[in-house]
Design a protein that fits this description.
With about 850 residues, the protein is an alpha+beta fold. The protein is about 40% helix and about 25% strand. The longest helix is centred in the N-terminal third of the chain and has 34 residues, at about 35-70. InterPro entries: Biofilm_reg_signaling, EAL_dom, EAL_sf, GGDEF_dom, Nucleotide_cyclase, PAC, PAS, PAS-assoc_C.
């Protein structure tokens, strides 16, 4: 290490002491007796060495002068961070003598350095780069000052050392402070953007000019919902045309450029003249930041034609009302919006093109502006000179600084298209998208308006439901269902003409509202016309479907004075028509309401019937029609309610299916029947096959097959002990699931039968694919044989189907000997009915079996 206070800056070559020793040796040699030639060589060598020492001393003085001439503190450090030398500027900057610094660790000058601070320095220097860092140095009196230190490596006496130049940043910080004060005080807006057009900073003038208060946009106000940006010709600017983008792209200053900014939320048009300046980082060929400096030139542009063009692009015009001179100023775009060929001279001209309501609104708003200095925003409707209607959004306020409110100014925006679009949306919200007629909400709104007017109290409602629509929709698909609804809409519309208002209530339900004051029988006439309109079948390709209507009629005020009440009663009448015979109409009556209450009471008590143990099963024998021998029986459910008494199955079963209670009841019937079969077997009466009815609602995944298997296992019965009877509805509810469930049941040995065949859907394409054992002839047809030709024909057809498919056949509802003989001749082997026996209790059937 160099001694304290000794300079280490030397010219290249030997150390100074080595030169002195060499010169002394030569002098001593010359005093010795030597040959002349050798003396001449030594003299020449001494002269050369003396000249070299003179040059070295001169070079050393130059290096020392240069070292001390550097205005910034320069320190030379050893590899471990010990100060080896310090220039004059460093001694002055640190307020210490050279002796106090040289030989001390660098932490003396910078006490905040961490223990491993030299690691990143040497890592950078070994890469051949300069290490730069900002730190705080300390003077001898303990005061601090910021510096930026640049470090490089050099070799001294075979050892690597560090030369560190520290630049005092105090003046730069002062300059930055002055720069910030300047930005905050000038009246020009200044914004700084990065390459993603994010706004990094903006001075107060920028906020003031753009009227942003404290809300600074995150990015440049181009292609944003909040701003419309145009050039000086009024053409909308894209991001690539924005002056900031051009400065980034071209890397040059974009001088004064006029840009128009329309701020949508505040309805204000602002014009600015902006200059953009690119900022380059070190060693970059493209700018990484851009400064934008701009001035507000809105006032200068107000009377300029370019301002009008920009407003026209956004359909926004400007206006000003000079109260003192009674003069109205409109920009060209404002005149175009109002349809004014000549500039209006006063406010009355503007008011004259508005309708009465809008005229009054504007007068009141103008008065409030003068009295309260409160701005306004109005949507006004009027008519142009050419007769076309318009809508405008008018914004107005007192100009800032106008204490007397002598000038009121603002903007006019043409909002006719948006208002028309809004009206279109309202119409769409009231219209059924498939059929184009009114929807449910629109119909209820119209009906409420009619009922609220005493003069329209005679309104009537027809509630229409399409019979067998589900069949078409399920069999042929939703497209066919949509076609059916469209054609049904056309037929109903033609049937009612102009005497009723048609709406689709949803699904296959429609409502017709009509006036019955002048013609009390009009609702019934319209209902009959609609019924007649559905007589022709509906054509779908080669297929024809007979689709009829069930119609319920309710009148105001006797059947309801509120829309929902009237609709509900018409709906109730429609269901009564559908329950009775369909294809017709039914007027609402108090009796219907009473029956509805009864149904609700039945459904309410039905939910508790199982818990109250109110159900029981009776068993009707199925006999060989030729011998009368009992071959099986059908389990029939009976319900005795404590309050309602004995209720027929045809009354409560439909309710149970509607409410879903049929699933729980069906499970009870299944287990009760299996338990009874087990008891008969235990009594030695043999295996009696019991048929039970299964509702379509019991088909839910694999539930039915699982329930049957559980019941059979619980009572140790073979599958042949059970016969399950299904209505034709299960054929089309879910064909794949039905096939799977039927196959599982048949695999258990359970007998499968279609009940009341021919009465419902008769979907033969499903029937031929089902693994069933037999069909059951409905008593609906048995009751008419052998006299009624239609019933005879149906029975013959069903028997023919059963024979062709190899299915068994059972007839139910046999009440006379003539019916038995007819069925025997037809080839029906098994039957049941009152001719043989009514439903028997388990004990009575046991006696019959014995």
């Amino acid at each position: 290490m160099t001694g304290t206070g000794q300079r280490i800056v030397h010219a290249e070559g030997e150390h100074p002491a080595a030169h002195v020793d060499a010169l002394a040796g030569l002098d001593q040699a010359l005093h010795q007796p030597l040959p002349l030639a050798l003396q001449q060589v030594l003299v020449a060598a001494r002269a050369a060495l003396s000249e070299a020492m003179t040059e070295r001393h001169a070079a050393q003085r130059r290096y020392e002068a240069l070292f001390d001439a550097v205005p910034d503190p320069v320190s030379i450090l050893s590899a471990t961070g010990v100060v080896l030398d310090l220039n004059k500027a460093g001694i002055e900057a640190y307020g210490r003598t050279r002796e106090e610094i040289v030989g001390q660790p660098i932490e003396l000058l910078n006490p905040d350095l961490p223990a491993d601070h030299l690691e990143p320095v040497w890592e950078t220097l070994h890469r051949g780069e300069t290490y730069v860092v900002e730190v705080t140095n300390m003077r001898g009196d303990g005061s601090r000052f910021p510096v930026e230190v640049h470090s490089a490596v050099f070799e001294h006496d075979g050892q690597q050392c560090i030369v560190a130049v520290a630049r005092d940043l105090s003046r730069r910080w002062q300059a930055e402070t002055r720069y910030r004060l300047l930005l905050e005080s000038i009246d020009k807006g200044v914004m700084l953007f990065d390459r993603s057009f994010n706004i990094l900073s903006a001075n107060p003038a920028a906020h003031r000019i753009l009227q942003l208060t404290n809300h600074l946009p995150a990015r440049a106000p181009v292609d944003a919902d909040e701003w419309i940006t145009v050039d000086e010709r009024g053409r909308r600017l894209g991001m690539e045309q924005w002056p900031v983008a051009r400065a980034f792209r071209d890397g040059r200053i974009i001088p004064s450029t006029i840009v128009g900014l329309y701020h949508r939320p505040h309805g204000r048009m602002i014009w600015i003249s902006m200059t953009t300046v690119p900022v380059f980082s070190s060693n970059c060929d493209l700018p990484d930041h851009v400064f934008s400096l701009f001035s507000d030139i809105t006032e200068l542009k107000r009377d300029h034609a370019l301002f009008d063009r920009a407003q026209a692009l956004a359909h926004i015009g400007g206006w000003e009302w000079d109260r003192g001179q009674k003069r109205l100023y409109l920009t060209g775009e404002a005149q175009r919006i109002l349809g004014q060929a000549q500039p209006p001279e006063d406010l009355d001209t503007l008011l004259g093109c508005l309708n009465l309501g809008s005229r009054q609104l504007l007068r009141e708003a103008m008065d409030r502006v003068v009295e309260q200095r409160a701005g306004f925003e109005l949507e006004l409707q009027g008519q142009r000179a050419n007769g076309h209607s318009f809508w405008i959004r008018m914004i107005g306020e007192v100009e800032p600084g106008d204490l007397a409110s002598s000038r009121i100014a603002g903007t006019l925006q043409d909002i006719t298209e948006s208002k028309q679009a809004e009206e279109t949306l309202k119409n769409q919200a009231r219209t059924d998208p498939l059929t184009g007629i009114m929807n449910r909400d629109a119909a209820l709104t119209d009906l409420e308006a009619r009922l609220s007017n005493p003069s329209h109290a005679g309104v009537a409602v027809l509630y229409i439901d399409l019979d067998r629509f589900k069949t078409v929709n399920d069999v042929l698909g939703h497209n066919a269902g949509d076609q059916l609804l469209i054609e049904a809409t056309r037929r109903i519309s033609q049937a009612i003409g102009t005497e009723g208002l048609l709406a689709r209530f949803g699904g296959d339900e429609f409502v017709v509202t009509c006036d019955a004051r002048d013609l009390p029988q009009r609702p019934e006439q319209l209902a009959q016309a609609i019924t007649d309109a559905f007589v022709p079948p509906f054509q779908f390709g080669k297929d024809e479907f007979a689709v009829t209507t069930s119609i319920g009629i309710a009148r105001a005020p006797q059947h309801g004075q509120r829309p929902q009440q009237l609709i509900q009663n018409a709906d109730l009448a429609m269901y009564e028509c559908k329950r009775r015979d369909r294809n017709g109409w039914q007027a609402f009556s108090p009796e219907l309401a009473r029956r509805q209450r009864d149904r609700l009471q039945i459904e309410r008590r039905l939910r508790k019937a199982l818990e109250r143990d109110e159900f029981r099963l009776v068993y009707q024998p199925q006999v060989d029609l030729r011998s009368g021998e009992l071959v099986a029986c059908e389990a029939l459910i009976r319900w005795h309610d404590r309050q309602l008494g004995e209720l027929r199955p045809d009354i409560f079963i439909s309710h149970a299916e509607n409410t879903g209670d049929i699933v729980r009841i069906g499970d009870w019937v299944l287990h009760q029947a299996c338990q009874q079969i087990r008891e008969w077997r235990d009594q030695g009466l043999g295996l009696v096959r019991v048929a039970i009815n299964v509702s379509y609602r019991q088909f839910s995944g694999d539930r039915l097959a699982h329930q049957v298997q559980s019941a059979l296992q619980a009572f140790d019965l073979p599958g042949s002990a059970l016969e399950l009877e299904f209505t034709e509805r299960v054929l089309i509810e879910d064909a794949p699931a039905t096939l799977r469930t039927f196959a599982e049941l048949r695999g258990m040995g359970v007998i499968l039968t279609i009940d009341d065949f021919g009465e419902g859907y008769s979907a033969l394409n499903y029937l031929r694919n089902l693994p069933i054992h037999g069909l059951k002839l409905s008593q609906l047809f048995i009751g008419g044989v052998p006299r009624n030709r239609s019933d005879v024909a149906v029975c013959e057809a069903v028997c023919g189907i059963a024979r062709s498919l190899g299915l068994g056949l059972v007839a139910e509802g046999i009440e006379s000997e003539a019916q038995r003989q007819f069925l025997l001749e037809l080839g029906v082997p098994v039957g049941q009915g009152f001719l043989f026996s009514p439903g028997l209790s388990p004990g009575e059937l046991a006696l019959r079996l014995r």
